[in-house]
Specification:
By secondary structure, this protein is an alpha/beta fold. It is built from 12 helices and 8 strands. It has an 8-stranded mixed sheet, sandwiched between helices. Helix 1 links the parallel strand 3 and strand 4. Helix 1 packs parallel to helix 12. The longest helix is centred in the C-terminal third of the chain and has 15 residues. It is globular and about 50 Å long. The protein starts with 7 loop residues before the first strand and ends with a helix. The mean pLDDT is about 95.
Length: about 280
């Protein structure tokens, strides 16, 4: 994992968080949030591009990627939004531009609406935000997590690879797929993979989705046109609920827009940050 080391640590109530920053310190800040079952690694290209003009903060949420994973860990959306709020204070970021993917969107939305986190601008990329969410497979695993935790390691690894692969429309490069599933491969990772699904309760978005009309910051809702995990119709509905939101579709991309159409997504985000995030 030397190409994405996340050298810094932060001790949160949900365990040690690994994080890093790219770009010149003191520049207008941008924070990137990943989703499940991914890590900040999916943002590597976008982060490096944005770091030419901004200080970019990346982090692996507790229970994901390089961050701590342990039995009994609270990795719910409620816990993650509290950790994110704590991290913003730790980084001394008053109003960063925030860019999120998948359930990172729910984390950032909860932090903003429930914990008072302030943003200069907000970009929501194929995010978990509106009910209902969760594929039939995701719900099945959540209902029987203790059974899936006992799968033989070879079957578990095959299941995770197939699941992660389904997030891409054109298909993932084998080396990228290897890197995305790596944190879930050993016994600690296997337990953590099913733990985070078991705690993914829709109640955490139900608590805030009727408040999206309160969001006043410039917002980009960006969606892969071929997303099979969360259809683009959800993105349009989300954008319609946020007064300051603009909706943009990226053709040819599935749920993992960062991997499917990296140039198109990066261009859209750089333009949005340039127009609204300073720099």
């Amino acid at each position: 994992m030397s190409e994405w080391p996340l050298a810094e640590t932060f001790r949160s109530a949900s365990g040690e968080v690994r994080w890093g920053s790219l770009g010149p310190p003191g520049r207008d800040p941008v924070v990137l949030l990943h989703g499940t079952p991914f890590s900040s690694y999916v943002w590597r290209g976008v982060a490096r591009a944005l770091a030419r003009r901004h200080q970019v903060f990346v982090w692996d949420m507790p229970g994901y990627g390089l961050s701590e994973k342990h039995a009994g860990q609270d990795v719910s959306l409620a816990a993650q939004s509290r950790v994110f709020t704590e991290l913003l204070a730790h980084w001394a970021l008053a109003e960063p531009t925030v860019i999120c993917h998948d359930f990172g969107g729910a984390v950032a939305l909860r932090a903003h609406l429930l914990h008072g986190a302030r943003y200069r601008a907000l970009a929501l990329v194929d995010v978990v935000a509106l009910a209902p969410w969760g594929s039939p497979f995701f719900r099945l695993v959540g209902e029987h997590a203790e059974v899936f935790e006992r799968l033989p390691p070879a079957l578990h690894r095959a299941l995770v690879r197939e699941y992660v692969s389904s997030a891409s429309s054109p298909g993932l490069h084998p080396a990228v797929l290897d890197r995305l599933v790596q944190p879930w491969q050993d016994p600690v990772g296997q337990a953590a993979f099913y733990r985070q699904i078991a705690q993914a309760d829709q109640v955490y978005t139900d608590q805030v989705q009727d408040r999206y009309g309160e969001i006043q910051v410039p917002t980009l809702v960006c969606w892969g046109g071929d997303d099979d995990w969360i259809p683009a119709a959800k993105g349009r509905e989300l954008a319609a609920r946020i007064p300051a939101a603009r909706f943009e579709t990226i053709p040819g991309a599935g749920h993992l827009v960062q991997e499917d159409t990296p140039a198109e997504l990066t261009a859209a985000l750089i333009a949005f940050v340039r127009d609204h995030g300073g720099g």
